[in-house]
Each structure stands twice: as structure tokens, then as C-alpha cells.
Design goal:
about 0% strand, Orphan protein
Length: about 400
């Protein structure tokens, strides 16, 4: 372990990397005896791999039973520093890496990134993009804006809607978004669905976005706006999350944005990413790369730290695996859905040609059950079991 801890001192680290190493070493020193008890067989020769190795030690291999209570926050801070360091180092490669390297990285890490699930989200959003927000059902608006809810039927929304910068903590935004979706339609209308997007288009969006908050005590913030933009044009706008903004800004070599830096988002994030070689070189050697090329501004989201636990943190996976308990066990009632949402979700499912006519004839009964909170697939399966 001692050899692992001191090995970066022999690496050719840049100024930022050296400062990161010193900060990490400061936390590691506080729990040095606990770390020394961990057997280390891998001794990476580059700083990124070193960060991954020490992160695995701090998260999975240290003996937490031997830690004192006051040491637990130190271990957590060490984990967070290493997570941020890994994100910074990976994002930094975006500056120079060509397109084949980036697409190869995404493909190679597809399992830990839960890539299949994330692409299901982008595919689903693509079907909504031309529909005004005010005409969407509640669940589709949640998917578009990036907030998970228990009413999202996992048989329909087979992905976590909070991939690509969750907005779950933007409570003020979501209240306005739910009450006045048409106001945000006005803003998004300034961003063309295809073709180039100009700075003037973006500025007009921002003016309308800020206006949506004019009659509210809530203050407009940047992160939710970037989520809407990224879902509108994933080939142009990269969404930002406050928890990951440090790593992104450091990697891009810019001063960290604050939550009201609407102008700097365009100049420092959008234009900087668009100026990178891989962004201009984007090509489609196969179907997978063609899919990535259509959402290329989302690619930086896949260069943040991810490990074997990332996919399992998906709200979709958690909802899918949520145990079913009987009423006698004190389980909460199922989350009810609005009739309009239930009808649209059921009609989508019944449009499948494999659904027999006598099941389609049970539409009203299926809608009723889905309103009560039962999943669409579960309800249709139940009808098939009863009626054949």
C-alpha cells in the first residue's frame, strides 16, 4: 500500500494533477493505518488508473469495521475526491481525443455506464421532441425534464429518466414546469429541431425561459435549462449537473460556472465542446456510431466516473426490483395515475399487433387498473391469464 500511495510522486503530473494528488494524499494520511491493512497487488503506472485503484480500495476493500466513527467522513471525502479526480481526468481527454477513441471508450464501458438503458431514454425522448410540453402526459414531461417519480411505469419507461443530469432537486422549476408547461414551450420553440442552432436562438430561449419565472418567487437556475436544451437538441447542448460541474469546468479549463451563468454556458461550455476535434470529426462507421453521432453533445456525460455500482443505482432498476408486499404487511398503496396518462399508456401498448382483439376489447378495464397504479404489462398479462 505504501508503494501505491507514493507512486504518483514518480509520475509526470501536471499542475492540476499534482494538486489533486496532494489533496487525496492529505485524506489518505488521516486513515493511513487502515489503508496499510489492505493488500494491494496492482500498482498502476498512470494517474487515472492509480485513482481507480485507490478508489476501489477506499470503497470496497478497506475494513470499515475497524474504522472509528470520526474516520468515516474522511473515507467518504477520500472517495468523493477520487471520484471527482477520475471524472476530471477522463473528461480532460475530450480536448484531444479523436472520434474513434471516444466512441471506443463508450462502447468499451457500456456495461458500467448502463449504456443500453441510457440509449433507451434518448430514443424515447426522440419520439416526444416534436410534441409540445403542454400536450404531453405528466409522465412524459417528467421523462423530458429529468425527474423520477413512482408513477413512471417501468414496463413503459424502461430507463431511468434522470440519466443526463437529474433535475430532481430543482423543486421550484418543477412546480412551474408542471403548472405552466406552455411557458417552457415558448422558450424551446426558439431552438430549431434540426439544423444549426445560433447564439441568437439560444439567447431567445433564455429570455423566454427567464420570463417563465417572472410571476413566481422561484429563481431560474441554469442546470434545469440545460436539461431541456439537451433533450431538445442532444447533438448541440450538453446538460450540466451541479454535483459534477467542478470536474467538467476543470477539464475544459474554464472558471466554474454558477447556477445563473446563462451567458457563460453558451460561450464556455457549448462553444468549447463544439470546438473540440472529435465533435467536428464525428462520423458513423456503423449503426452504433450513427446513434452516438445523433446525440454527440451528450457524450461528455459518459466520461464522468462510473463503476460496477453505477448501473444498479438506476431508478428504473430500483423500481423494477421493488418487492411486492401484501396490504397486511403495511405496504403503501400503489401510486395512482391520471386517467389521461393511463389511457395513453394503455393505447400505446394495445397498438402492438401481437395483442389479440379480445384483449383490446378489455381496454376500459385495463385503463382502470393502470389508473390504480398497476403496470401496463402486468395488467395485460393478468387479462391474458384470465381471458386467454
Amino acid at each position: 500500500m505504501k508503494k501505491l500511495l507514493i507512486s504518483p510522486s514518480k509520475m509526470a503530473l501536471g499542475e492540476q494533477e499534482s494538486q489533486i494528488y496532494q489533496n487525496i494524499l492529505k485524506q489518505a494520511t488521516e486513515i493511513s493505518l487502515n489503508l496499510m491493512a489492505v493488500k494491494v497487488e496492482q500498482h498502476p503506472e498512470d494517474f487515472l488508473s492509480w485513482c481507480y485503484e485507490l478508489h476501489d480500495v477506499a470503497k470496497n476493500r478497506i475494513n470499515f469495521d475497524l474504522l472509528d466513527d470520526h474516520q468515516l467522513p474522511i473515507v467518504k471525502k477520500l472517495q468523493d475526491q477520487l471520484t471527482s479526480a477520475i471524472s476530471f481526468l477522463q473528461l480532460k481527454t475530450l480536448r484531444v481525443a479523436p472520434w474513434p477513441v471516444l466512441s471506443g471508450f463508450v462502447s468499451q464501458h457500456s456495461e458500467v455506464l448502463a449504456l443500453e438503458e441510457q440509449l433507451k431514454l434518448t430514443d424515447y425522448i426522440a419520439t416526444l421532441r416534436a410534441t409540445p410540453l403542454k400536450d404531453m402526459i405528466v409522465e412524459d414531461r417528467l421523462a423530458f425534464s429529468g425527474k423520477h417519480a413512482a408513477s413512471l411505469d417501468p414496463s413503459v419507461y424502461n430507463f431511468d429518466v434522470e440519466w443526463f443530469a437529474s433535475t430532481k432537486n430543482a423543486k421550484g422549476f418543477h412546480q412551474l414546469f408542471a403548472d405552466f408547461p406552455g411557458e417552457f414551450d415558448v422558450a424551446l420553440a426558439h431552438i430549431p429541431l434540426e439544423g444549426s442552432v445560433s447564439e441568437q436562438d439560444y439567447q431567445q430561449f433564455i429570455i423566454a425561459y427567464l420570463k417563465a419565472f417572472a410571476n413566481s418567487d422561484e429563481k431560474p437556475t441554469l442546470a434545469p435549462a440545460t436539461r431541456l436544451l439537451a433533450m431538445r437538441r442532444p447533438d448541440v447542448f450538453t446538460p450540466i449537473a451541479n454535483t459534477k460541474l467542478d470536474a467538467l469546468c476543470s477539464a475544459l479549463g474554464i472558471t466554474k460556472l454558477n447556477n445563473r451563468d446563462f451567458e457563460r454556458y453558451w460561450t464556455d461550455i457549448v462553444k468549447t465542446i463544439h470546438a473540440m476535434p472529435w465533435f467536428a470529426m464525428t462520423s458513423a462507421a456503423d449503426e452504433f456510431e450513427q446513434q452516438l453521432a445523433g446525440i454527440k453533445a451528450l457524450i461528455p456525460c459518459w466520461f464522468y466516473h462510473a463503476d460496477k455500482d453505477t448501473a444498479n443505482q438506476s431508478n428504473y432498476i430500483k423500481l423494477l426490483n421493488k418487492p411486492t408486499r401484501s396490504k397486511s404487511s403495511g405496504a403503501k398503496k400503489s401510486v395512482r395515475r391520471g386517467k389521461e396518462s393511463a389511457e395513453i399508456l394503455v393505447d400505446r401498448a394495445l397498438s402492438d399487433e401481437s395483442i389479440s382483439q379480445h384483449i383490446r376489447d378489455k381496454r376500459d378495464s385495463i385503463v382502470s387498473e393502470v389508473e390504480k397504479g398497476r403496470s401496463v404489462d402486468e395488467t395485460i398479462s393478468l387479462m391474458r391469464a384470465i381471458f386467454g
